[in-house]
Design goal:
homodimer; about 260 residues; 7 helices; DNA-binding
Chain lengths: ~260, ~260
DNA sequence: CAGTGGTCTAGACCACAGA
DNA sequence: CTGTGGTCTAGACCACTGG
């Protein structure tokens, strides 16, 4: 039995509403603390604006060194969940939701990384004959078969993305056999075929009445439409239209060019 | 004269090709080290695959504690520039081919590369005192001065972008002396300061009546708003809102992702 | 085995904000 | 002034890798 730094004694819940369980096997202490704080933010125990206990307070409450407390706080600040003001304190920020445009993180992961629940409803899942415009967009011949799926994604029961997708059956023949309430189509496709090439186009649109209904918005609320296509071996694997109500979701990216 | 932890003695360049200058005023040591490493990666002194000196080596070379060495390495790893393998070492990663979702190409170039005429009209150009929200977005104190400019860009006399921009005077003091009908603000800023860090957020909005008027559209036509901020030496150089009528302009990118 | 990164501690000094 | 976060040190133990 390997002794681990995680199997240490820990006095918990002294004055703080942070619960750190004692029986962790091999998770670093700072990670446990980070998760516990995230949990408190997620569950609304610490709503936006809440002032967190000071580093010294947390250190003595949890029986950890101040440096070990500092790291989770610093990282959560970098991730945008906390805001720290020197001489004042540490506060829970308003949730800033925006998807990362550069990474291809599937929406379910994206939502879960924000500490929310993901749920999906499949509206349509069938095989169709491609019409001319669609065939052109998919790089196939008119009349060739296509898989077609429409899914609405929810974040904590709020609809956040309306996904319309076509998939090339000759690249992913087993697409129709998946339970897409458990795996998102994007997630499944990435796991099946690692795309060699990607195309993104972002537009601003007003939703159709059907889409507005499924997203629980009205038809004059602007939405982002992210059109995405992926390639493998020179063939188009899938073409997707991802529609986000702009009031609930932005697309964004931040990065260091390093050149 | 305030004594700062940055004004410490430091033996530099012992065995490592890392140069840390001694005369820094108030930059944290870990930040200086992080920048120095980034610089070595950027300049190709440490090409992809290079094994970095070990933490202990760097610590003794730079005369810093191992924890102080650890932090920059950890952060650069999180940012994807380094890869660390326990028991083996720290390595420079292959350059991340970032999605230039929104190319940095200034709008004038973009338009001219389409074979069209670019023209700009400056609506506002003045120095202002920053209000609270704006100061926060620019990372300065409320009341600090800011340059403010509003420009409409035309493609063959059709308005195509409404640009609202704030500029940090302490980074670009000569901003107000430029003729922005000849040079776009973005163009000028890139030529003056090469940004180290970038942030993009894309939203779908409906234009205000003022903006709709200047873009010659009606107020129910959805627009893309691209919010962009750039950093240099940890300071925010500029924050811009670029508004495009979606009927005339999409944002897009096509690229090969990493494996 | 020695060397690496991963984590943690118990202090310390500093800058900053507010009473 | 006290209390906050920001940083830094000089150790320490651990898990992992390779020879």
């Amino acid at each position: 039995m390997p002794k681990s730094y995680a199997q240490r004694k820990m006095s918990m819940n002294k004055n703080t509403s942070l619960s750190i369980t004692n029986s962790e096997i091999a998770r670093p202490l700072y990670q446990q603390i980070k998760d516990a704080i995230s949990e408190n933010i997620r569950n609304g125990v610490w709503p936006p604006g809440t002032k967190l206990p000071s580093e010294n307070q947390l250190a003595s409450d949890l029986g950890a060194s101040r440096m070990t407390i500092n790291r989770p706080l610093r990282e959560l600040t970098a991730e945008g969940h906390l805001k720290r003001i020197q001489g004042v304190g540490t506060f829970v920020t308003e949730p800033a939701r925006h998807a990362n445009l550069i990474e291809l993180k599937p929406i379910a992961e994206e939502i879960q990384s924000q500490g929310k629940q993901h749920r999906a409803k499949v509206l349509t899942l069938k095989s169709i004959k491609s019409k001319r415009v669609l065939a052109e967009r998919m790089g196939i011949n008119t009349g060739d078969p296509l898989f077609h799926i429409i899914v609405v994604h929810y974040q904590d029961d709020i609809p956040i993305q309306y996904e319309t997708r076509h998939v090339n059956p000759s690249v992913v023949p087993n697409f129709m056999q998946i339970d897409f309430t458990k795996t998102t189509p994007g997630e499944f496709l990435v796991s099946q075929v690692r795309p060699e090439e990607l195309e993104h186009i972002v537009q601003a649109i007003l939703p159709t009445t059907k889409i507005a209904k499924h997203l629980s918005i009205n038809t004059v609320e602007p939405c982002l439409r992210l059109k995405r296509r992926t390639w493998k071996d020179g063939q188009i694997v899938t073409a997707a239209d991802l529609i986000y109500p702009s009031s609930r979701y932005d697309l964004g990216a931040r990065y260091q060019p390093l050149t």
